[in-house]
């Protein structure tokens, strides 16, 4: 099966809460996938990617970050990042109990940023990162770069960025990724904004398959 199965592990602190996507023919690998600052794990982008990866054999744990578990709406509070990274580390722990192969960690926007920071702190935690619309800087504030940890990121990473993303242009991302010593690639999505084509009822039908193909080409 590859439908969503609700899951909670409250034996861990922070709690891990989300949904499993369990493939019919598992390939041995797994992916933790999480959301941005204004969303949750039910974001259509995450659901579509989870289904697509599960169809190709990945066990996917699509989860809510700790800040979202505490409040249904609104962005994380200042200084919440450490707790959210601990939540991601716990999600990796849960997935590792259910997957014999490689573990990957992915996130959209804020979730992806926390994944890179966790990877910089714990380089052996996962085999690779999938980073959707990395928030390189706040809109219209290109001087406020979120790259301080990039020189310490030794985890291979696939960045996916739209050409109309106000949080970082393709040119800005290309320059920033030179700071990362580990293998990394930038997948450019023409005409897409920060939502990568998943806004309101709009769905970029071909996008999940394109990401999967790029991901598998990079990580094998």
Summary, kept brief:
By secondary structure, the protein is α/β, with parallel strands linked by helices. It has six helices and eight strands, in the order βββαβααβαββαβα.
Q: How is this structure best described in words?
A:
This protein has a single domain (4-219), classed as 3-Layer(aba) Sandwich (Rossmann fold), CATH 3.40.50.1820. The longest helix is centred in the middle third of the chain and has 16 residues, at 81-96. The model has no long low-confidence stretch (mean pLDDT 96). Helix 1 (44-55) packs across helix 6 (207-219) and helix 3 (81-96) packs across helix 4. Strands 1-2-4-3-5-6-7-8 form an eight-stranded mixed β-sheet, with helices on both faces. It is α/β, with parallel strands linked by helices and 220 residues long. The protein has helices at 44-55, 66-70, 81-96, 110-121, 170-177, 207-219, and strands at residues 4-9, 16-21, 30-34, 59-64, 103-108, 128-132, 157-162, 184-189. The protein has six helices and eight strands, in the order βββαβααβαββαβα. The relative contact order is 0.14.
């Amino acid at each position: 099966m590859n439908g969503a199965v609700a899951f909670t592990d409250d034996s861990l602190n922070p709690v891990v809460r989300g949904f499993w996507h369990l493939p019919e023919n598992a390939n041995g690998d797994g992916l933790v996938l999480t959301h941005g600052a204004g969303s949750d794990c039910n974001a259509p982008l995450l659901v579509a990617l989870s289904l697509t990866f599960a169809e190709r054999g990945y066990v996917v744990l699509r989860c809510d970050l700790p800040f979202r578990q505490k409040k249904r709406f609104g962005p994380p509070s200042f200084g919440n990042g450490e707790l959210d990274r601990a939540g991601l580390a716990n999600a990796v722990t849960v997935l590792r109990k259910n997957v014999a192969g490689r573990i990957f960690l992915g996130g959209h926007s804020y979730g992806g940023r926390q994944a890179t920071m966790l990877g910089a702190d714990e380089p052996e935690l996962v085999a690779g990162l999938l980073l959707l619309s990395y928030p390189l800087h706040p809109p219209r504030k290109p001087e406020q770069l979120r790259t301080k940890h990039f020189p310490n990121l030794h985890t291979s990473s696939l960045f996916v960025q739209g050409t109309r993303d106000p949080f970082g242009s393709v040119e800005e991302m290309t320059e920033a990724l030179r700071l990362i010593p580990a293998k990394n690639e930038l997948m450019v999505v023409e005409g897409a904004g920060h939502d990568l084509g998943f806004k309101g009822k709009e769905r970029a039908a071909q996008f999940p398959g394109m990401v999967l193909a790029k991901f598998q080409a990079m990580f094998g």
